[in-house]
Write a structure and sequence with these properties.
The chain is mostly helical. Helices cover 77% and strands 0% of the residues. The longest helix is centred in the first third of the chain and has 26 residues.
């Protein structure tokens, strides 16, 4: 069945397909980043557990889930080539249900974000707008291999981190918090680039200029490795300068583990990209929490 014919199909989506549409596996990074933000604020998360739990739910299942639904709706023609078994191109999410789910979750995101106060609400508005700007025409920033992953990295790591710190401290985070959140968001550009390897063929056909398409798999993988590593080197240097040598040393070890995984990745970038997401991304996100602990409670 073609994508066009599916849009005319009657019926309602299967609940399992709707859950698959919002991709629970993608929720962890923004949830973890929000938690890092609360830790980096220096305010005990136990002082406002409701704000912590609500923010984690907002960052993961609600906003991130919404962004996945919006992306799958806007990418339904690309997915028909790359991954025809996904909920929308397969017909398990029939008609325009994918669009209605994405719109309903956008409204839900704003409603929940409002409960987090002005900082949380403002960040939610930015997150929702960024999700649609990434996927939807005429903006569709995912067409750019530089702007698209950069925006996703910012919204997956930087914005939730900033939000968690701002909500818990009820004000603008300190500059060291903002700087480290931004550096980890920049590094996440490389992680997002590696995710683009799985859509290489469809992106090439549909004119999505991801780095694997424009640079080729080998050069794109090398670029991703540099983009992931250099911000962490800067974080290490800053932590040393700010008087947190133990935390900086721990992140050095975590970076060395990533460099070893990167060496394996570069032997077969396209084939090894999914492997790296498990072997290399874990030390990266663990370093985020070590950094947050240094900023919030390190001595």
């Amino acid at each position: 069945m073609s994508v066009i014919s599916q849009l005319r199909s009657p019926g309602r989506p299967d609940p399992a397909a709707a859950l698959e549409l919002i991709k629970p596996v993608t929720w962890f990074p923004p949830m973890w980043a929000y938690l890092c933000g609360t830790v980096s604020s220096g305010v005990s998360p136990m002082s406002s557990p409701g704000l912590v739990v609500l923010g984690i739910l907002l960052a993961g299942p609600i906003v991130c889930g919404m962004s996945q639904a919006a992306n799958d709706w806007c990418d339904r023609h690309v997915d028909a080539i790359n991954e025809p078994n996904r909920p929308i191109p397969s017909g398990r999410i029939p008609g325009r249900w994918g669009l209605w789910i994405a719109l309903a979750m956008s409204v839900l995101s704003l409603a929940v974000g409002y409960l987090l106060g002005p900082w949380g609400f403002g960040a939610t508005i930015l997150g929702v707008a960024a999700a649609w700007a990434y996927s939807a025409e005429p903006v569709r920033l995912k067409r750019s291999g530089w702007l698209g992953p950069g925006l996703v990295g910012l919204c997956y790591e930087g914005l939730p981190w900033f939000t968690g710190a701002a909500v818990l401290s009820a004000g603008a985070p300190a500059w060291p918090v903002v700087i480290c959140a931004l550096l980890y968001a920049i590094g996440a550009h490389g992680i997002m680039t590696l995710n683009d390897f799985k859509a290489l063929e469809g992106d090439r056909v549909m004119g999505v200029n991801s780095l694997p398409v424009t640079l080729g798999p080998e050069r794109a993988a090398k670029a991703a490795c540099w983009i992931m590593a250099l911000p962490q080197v800067m974080v290490i240097a800053l932590l040393f300068a700010w008087g947190h040598p133990i935390h900086a040393a721990i992140i050095c070890v975590l970076l060395l583990l990533q460099l070893r995984a990167m060496k394996v990745l570069l032997t077969d970038p396209k084939g090894r990209a999914p492997w790296y997401n498990g072997a290399g991304v874990g030390p990266y996100v663990l370093g985020m929490m070590v950094t947050a602990a240094a900023l919030g409670y390190g001595s």
